[in-house]
Amino acid sequence: MSQVLPAERGLRRVIGDGASVPDGQVDGLSADDLLALYRGLVLLRTYDERSVVYHRQGRIGTYAIFWNHEAMQVGSAFALERRDWIFPSYRESAIGLLRGMPVATVLQWWRGHPAGWWNPLDWNVASICVPIGTHVPHAVGFAWGAKLRGEDRVALVMFGDGATSEGSVHEGMTFAGVTKAPVILFCNNNQWAISTPVSEQTAAPTLAEKAIGYGMPGVRVDGGDVLAVYEATREAVARARAGDGPTFIEAVTYRAAPHATADDPSLYIDEERVAEARENECVGRFARYLERAGLLSEDVAAEIKDDALARLREGIAEAEAEPPADPALVFDYAYASPPPGLADDLAELRRILGR
Amino acid sequence: MSQVLPAERGLRRVIGDGASVPDGQVDGLSADDLLALYRGLVLLRTYDERSVVYHRQGRIGTYAIFWNHEAMQVGSAFALERRDWIFPSYRESAIGLLRGMPVATVLQWWRGHPAGWWNPLDWNVASICVPIGTHVPHAVGFAWGAKLRGEDRVALVMFGDGATSEGSVHEGMTFAGVTKAPVILFCNNNQWAISTPVSEQTAAPTLAEKAIGYGMPGVRVDGGDVLAVYEATREAVARARAGDGPTFIEAVTYRAAPHATADDPSLYIDEERVAEARENECVGRFARYLERAGLLSEDVAAEIKDDALARLREGIAEAEAEPPADPALVFDYAYASPPPGLADDLAELRRILGR
Amino acid sequence: MSERFLVEAVNDALHVEMERDASVLVLGEDVGKLGGVFRATAGLQERFGANRCIDTPLAEAGILGTAVGLCMAGWRPVVEMQYDAFSYPALDQLITHVGRYHWRTRGTMTFPLTIRMPYGGGVRAPELHDDSPEAHYVHTPGVKVAIPSTPADAKGLLTAAIRDPDPVVVLEPKLHYRTAKQEVPDGEHVVPLGQARVAREGVDVTLVAYGAMVPLCERAADALAGEASCEVLDLRSLKPLDEDALLASVAKTGRAVIVQEAPRVAGFAAEIAAVLAEKAVFDLHGPVLRVTGYDVPYPYWQLEDYYMPSVERVTDAVRRVLAA
Amino acid sequence: MSERFLVEAVNDALHVEMERDASVLVLGEDVGKLGGVFRATAGLQERFGANRCIDTPLAEAGILGTAVGLCMAGWRPVVEMQYDAFSYPALDQLITHVGRYHWRTRGTMTFPLTIRMPYGGGVRAPELHDDSPEAHYVHTPGVKVAIPSTPADAKGLLTAAIRDPDPVVVLEPKLHYRTAKQEVPDGEHVVPLGQARVAREGVDVTLVAYGAMVPLCERAADALAGEASCEVLDLRSLKPLDEDALLASVAKTGRAVIVQEAPRVAGFAAEIAAVLAEKAVFDLHGPVLRVTGYDVPYPYWQLEDYYMPSVERVTDAVRRVLAA
Lengths: 355, 355, 324, 324
Ligand SMILES: Cc1ncc(C[n+]2csc(CCOP(=O)(O)OP(=O)(O)O)c2C)c(N)n1
Ligand SMILES: Cc1ncc(C[n+]2csc(CCOP(=O)(O)OP(=O)(O)O)c2C)c(N)n1
Ligand SMILES: [Mg+2]
Ligand SMILES: [Mg+2]
Known about the structure:
The complex is a heterotetramer, with 2 copies of chain A (355 residues) and 2 copies of chain C (324 residues).
Chain A: H1 31-56, H2 70-78, E1 85-87, H3 103-110, H4 120-123, H5 136-148, E2 155-160, H6 167-179, E3 183-189, E4 192-193, E5 196-197, E6 218-222, H7 226-241, E7 247-252, H8 271-279, H9 282-292, H10 298-321, H11 328-331, H12 341-353
Parallel strand pairs in A: 1-2, 2-3, 3-7, 6-7
Antiparallel strand pairs in A: 4-5
Helix pairs in contact in A: 1-2, 1-9, 1-10, 2-7, 3-10, 5-6
Chain C: E1 2-5, H1 6-20, E2 24-28, H2 44-48, E3 53-55, H3 60-72, E4 76-80, H4 91-98, H5 101-104, E5 114-119, H6 134-138, E6 144-146, H7 151-163, E7 168-173, E8 181-184, E9 197-200, E10 205-209, H8 213-223, E11 230-234, E12 237-239, H9 243-253, E13 256-263, H10 268-279, E14 289-293, H11 304-307, H12 311-323
Parallel strand pairs in C: 2-3, 2-4, 4-5, 5-7, 6-7, 10-11, 10-13, 13-14
Antiparallel strand pairs in C: 1-8, 6-12, 9-11
Helix pairs in contact in C: 1-7, 3-4, 8-12
One thiamine diphosphate sits between chains B (91, 130-132, 159-163, 188, 190, 192-194, 259) and D (29, 58, 82, 86, 89).
């Protein structure tokens, strides 16, 4: 019996635990880089925590919480160039913030306001994908298409453990392998798809070994370790740029918050694991690493946090200041060149609404 | 890096080449069993060759040729009990013959006559599946459902190499793994999906290693070796009956005939490989094995062939004798309890047709 | 009788039918421990076990495809699709197999499966949680479609669907899951497929609707009180369609406004209009109007009230028909 | 001008457009070396290379999903679905993404992709090679649909589709791939979307059709010569729909028979009937009849002539409308 492609079972880690597990390092990362990573983490964390509050206050609608997923988003996005594209799911709704997207834009998405849809070309961040895993072929097609045009662009697509069961993810990965598309298939394995544990998604012991069937490497990383995520993604990006095709990354964490604001995990989740995950949450973990390395003072940490809070305050104010959307926006952009009836529909609607 | 599930790269073989590769044996197979296998091969071969002729004569419609696929069909079906179910694709249209289904029934399918749809409960053979791979979830659901009812029934589902790209196959295999359904996922890797080589279906070097991602064993077998196919399937059946769940079998051959009667492979195929495959075709290979073992005389071989030819002659005569289908059959069975309008439609149609 | 919300009536139907028939099983995403994201399947796993109320992998084509196989093994599966728009990955199985397999076996095997899902808009949800996909289902031969508008019908139609020998899609108006509350018969309760319900009698115009559009039409009828007497016909089942009730009502009123929240073009309202154009053309005193969603993606929720048929749009249409 | 079969006209359009616009690429199952199972893409790979005429894995959702991504990378993909019924696995991508992504970007990105496929029955093929899925496509917001009935239109509409900034589904009547032959303009040839064609003038009744039903209606019109003067309106594009041409014709004739081979219930003929019931109700001298496939699985091919609209069924409908 000959050997199949390697896929990893162990979790790659860089950050130690301050005790028996020593801290590692990632080559090439400067102190500034490390602080930039931390800023990203805090920005996303702040965004997430404030959003939950805004939801409770009725200022945004249903919201998909990503608390303790920040390291996966920040670590992977940091390994990209600005020309590379990110294809987020609802779980990465705020990933555009890392590229300077206004907080208000993302909040508007959750407020159900058209201003929440951005122009992907402005940020090289695709629209948020709601139906599970169906954006995987988009990312693959984009990366493949860029390669066919001779452009040096990588695509990073993010999806959950549950998504790996969907046919569209399978088909996207199949195309990725065959076309050697420069794409990184980044799976946030938070071990739950709403109430369904990953053990009920697949009989495979890890998700990383799914990569084997597509002829691509499968990498397994601690999803709470921003440095390990960064390093694994950077390797994958290098492979992609070198023409060696796609990489599947399984980043493992544990969902420490409800699936979304409407969810009640007490019906199904393992509270002990949640407590453990909260204890070991990714932002604090990286803060302690930086502190141990003498790179993060209390002052700087406070300034970073304040800055993020200020951005959120401004963002929600900006979002709430936006005038209500005009009914014309129901019809605008449905077609680039609309069939004739739509203009009549709008006229009729305006007549009835009296506006 | 720890180890993933084993999947095979080498091809299992039992039948030797009469020269350097010695013949093997399969434990537990009697001389009668071996002759039964041979009868099955010859029956299918005869069915297939006559069907191509009938097509040329305009007596059946488009036909999907399975020349040199007989060993995969006969070997795997022989490992089942009569209570076990087979889920064929168009490539295994005649597999019911192995269970005593009349030749005329299968011919009628290719003649576009309603008599070509059989009652699956009569043969424990599901209807022929035309859309690629979409019957895989059926087989999995059936096997799982039988298990839930406490019945000892295994399902064997057959599909091609191209099918492994379809989302429905992925989803079916995912369910098979998770439910530990007693199902055998039997992939006929004839290395072509019409004009598309398997190398353009996946970047994985073998299909067997796809099994890893579903947490099931992947077995690789020489699809031209009826004994190897039988043995591998028997093992999978034993696993299934023991409650150990599904097995993926990749049986490797080379498509030695057009995809179907309408196809012109000269546009894409490797003629040398075809010649090689024809040279080494599976029925002759097993005949020579039996001859070497002294189990097949010329007389017996001739009798088996004559018998098969007679069944085909009778079958086509029977099919052609069937009266044309009544228009009522357009409407019958669309619903078990039809909406009211259909009866009116039939009445109107009869009025217009004057019959 | 017990007062129940619409979603509770669904839940009750499942409890009663699973108790009554041991071959009924429920499968879908998060239907087990969680009891469904809307709690429609709450309590089933505790009561009937994890083999009869099954959390599946996240794979809709796999869910429906395995349900076909479960039928072949003798089960009567009730499949939940978590939301309307998330049923699209299963359309292929529905069209190529669910609607065809009974026929393919020449009537020898039945596929008594039920596909139920919350559908429709108005709930302030993110993208693709608001679709009304009934036209795709109705257009599929071999498949029946029911859409309740009240808690009692939600129970009765689902029961009929589960007992029906054919595959039935039941779309449940999620907008009214926890707003519509009504006395619902306890125990077994069947509302046969193919019988429309006159939700309100009237003589000037027939408002034809189903699902969440029925209470809307009732409100429009209220708004028109004194001005026009509206009959509100709740179709309840789109296939089989109760043509007799439809034609009888329009014969009486001579006018029809059809209300549907799905996009207009080639939606189910067109089928109703076509039936009227064929069979009631000489009864009509005015045009058959459709009040529908538009031929645009279901909008961001701050705009959804503009998209959804409203009392104002329905009354406007009624006034136009009456003026014609 | 050159005489071409319908499928050759399709092939010609692809050659011309790929030559004209280097961002056009073709992808699908077996479109490359083989040139497609119907040879619609023959010669493209030789001429434009394997990067612009691409054999894909056997995965329709993957094909359409990657095409969305190819658009994002600046390509203008022309996707072939090998057969009508094999496009169903891609419906999810179509409905949830293809029809919505331009809107989702607030008009900043376009998705000028074309999905072409052979459709329809009458070709003595095994199961599921005969479907007419247009209603599913027309009902999808953001997506346009064209169906040619002649070789020249097959070229012209496909060209328009490829150049259109929106996603367009083009259904090609496979029955006439190699039976319809006609002079087709050489070089660039555009038939704009949204302009119906009066295939034959008449005054007594309008036969509304598209695709393979157009020549059928012409034959029916022949059969009725002397008895009734039939106008045959070839819609050509279902969305955008040329309502003006439809209403003008029916205003003239006062009668309409709509012919479609897809199953009747909630098919596209219902949309036409609904438009007439709304906008032409006072022009109509009789019922609007539909001659269609039935609400049954497309049958075994020995029975397909009973299922498909026939000259006899169309003439029968015309006589009934005239007698009303
Ligand atoms: C096609 C589809 N089916 C179902 C849903 C409903 N749904 C939303 S999130 C979710 C679970 C997703 O789990 P996973 O992929 O692990 O991602 P996570 O939410 O954990 O990040 C489900 C079933 C959906 N959005 N799309
Ligand atoms: C869903 C679907 N897509 C496309 C087709 C058209 N088609 C018929 S056979 C075939 C190739 C199948 O190849 P493979 O799975 O290797 O099986 P083989 O025919 O070689 O046995 C294709 C593309 C189909 N039948 N179903
Ligand atoms: Mg998850
Ligand atoms: Mg093959």
